């Protein structure tokens, strides 16, 4: 276009002029586009932005408090078990809070996603690389901590990011913590009451029994159920612990039988499933009525 308008000018001069014009025009376009985006998303309004930041602070504080409460539970286990539980906590709740914070910052760069839960490791790295320098390094440290095995490293990195983003982390008082632990137990009780699938019943039951006996919460995947049953051995009457171990063995046998149908196994999957469903009420009773269970005496 410039060459058409300036036919008598040197080509090199026209190219240089075009580059000089391109940079400020591009910057101006990006600023206008960003303002349109913020306005359409509510970010252009000071009141709306404060509301959004308040929502962010509530979400982050809720997850942060839960992470700290679950950390108390995993510290009751031996080193190897503690590492497995820490890695699970990092891959779940810790990842959730990281993605929420990152998505909020990314929205200011017009790079956010609709649902932070959909952010993958690769997406997180790409988003972080596009952030302003003042938040890039702290956010990258938080991102890196998720691949580790220490919750304290994550919490330290989270506090740095929160401070940079002006998100105030409010420590819950003892009364609030007790309420959160109670609410978590009630949630587990309700879920266990509805559940009938044997493996899920065992998972929920041992989580409940652990919390009743230790007075702290534990965030554990199904594969860590044997670790919790091992912990419960020193706190339960021998008969109750034996019931848990037997139920766990039957669940494992049932899974293997379903994986290898037709093999010469002692009991087929249908027989094992029937047996497990017959034992489900007893396992539920042990977990949902801990006072009764804890007062039973060993033989």
Could you please describe the fold and organization of this structure?
By secondary structure, the protein is mainly alpha-helical. Helix 5 (121-129) packs antiparallel against helix 6 (133-145). Helices cover 74% and strands 0% of the residues. It starts with a helix and ends in a 5-residue tail after the last helix. The chain has helices at residues 2-5, 11-41, 46-74, 79-107, 121-129, 133-145, 151-164, 174-194, 198-214, 225-232, 238-259, 269-288, 290-294.
Short synopsis of the structure:
With 299 residues, the chain is mainly alpha-helical.
How large, in whole angstroms, is the Cα Rg?
28 Å
Helix/strand-derived category reads mainly alpha
Strand content: under 5%
Structural shape? elongated
The oligomeric status of these chains comes to: single chain
Overview features:
299 residues; mainly alpha; disordered C terminus
What is the strand and helix layout of this fold?
Layout: H1 2-5, H2 11-41, H3 46-74, H4 79-107, H5 121-129, H6 133-145, H7 151-164, H8 174-194, H9 198-214, H10 225-232, H11 238-259, H12 269-288, H13 290-294
Helix pairs in contact: 3-4, 4-6, 4-7, 5-6, 6-7, 8-9, 9-10, 9-11, 9-12, 11-12
């Amino acid at each position: 276009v410039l060459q058409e308008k300036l036919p008598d000018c040197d080509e090199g001069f026209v190219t240089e002029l075009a580059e000089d014009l391109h940079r400020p025009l591009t910057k101006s376009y990006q600023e206008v586009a960003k303002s349109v985006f913020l306005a359409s998303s509510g970010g252009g309004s000071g009141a709306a932005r404060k509301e959004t930041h308040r929502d962010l602070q509530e979400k982050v504080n809720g997850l942060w408090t839960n992470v700290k409460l679950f950390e108390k539970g995993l510290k009751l286990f031996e080193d190897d078990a503690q590492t497995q539980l820490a890695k699970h906590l990092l891959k779940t709740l810790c990842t959730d809070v990281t993605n929420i914070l990152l998505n909020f910052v990314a929205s200011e760069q017009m790079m956010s996603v609709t649902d932070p839960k959909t952010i993958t490791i690769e997406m997180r790295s790409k988003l972080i690389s596009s952030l302003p320098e003042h938040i890039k390094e702290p956010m990258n440290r938080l991102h890196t901590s998720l691949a580790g095995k220490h919750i304290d490293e994550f919490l330290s990195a989270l506090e740095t990011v929160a401070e940079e983003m002006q998100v105030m982390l409010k420590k819950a008082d003892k009364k609030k913590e007790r309420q959160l632990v109670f609410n978590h137990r009630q949630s587990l009780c309700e879920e266990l009451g509805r559940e009938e699938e044997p493996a899920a019943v065992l998972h929920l039951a041992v989580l409940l029994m652990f919390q009743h006996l230790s007075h702290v919460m534990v965030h554990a995947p199904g594969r860590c159920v044997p670790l919790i049953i091992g912990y419960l051995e020193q706190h339960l009457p021998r008969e109750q612990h034996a019931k848990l171990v037997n139920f766990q063995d039957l669940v494992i046998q049932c899974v293997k039988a379903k994986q290898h149908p037709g093999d010469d196994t002692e009991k087929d999957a249908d027989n094992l499933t029937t047996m497990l469903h017959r034992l489900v009420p007893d396992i539920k009773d042990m977990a949902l009525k801990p006072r009764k269970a804890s007062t039973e005496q060993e033989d």
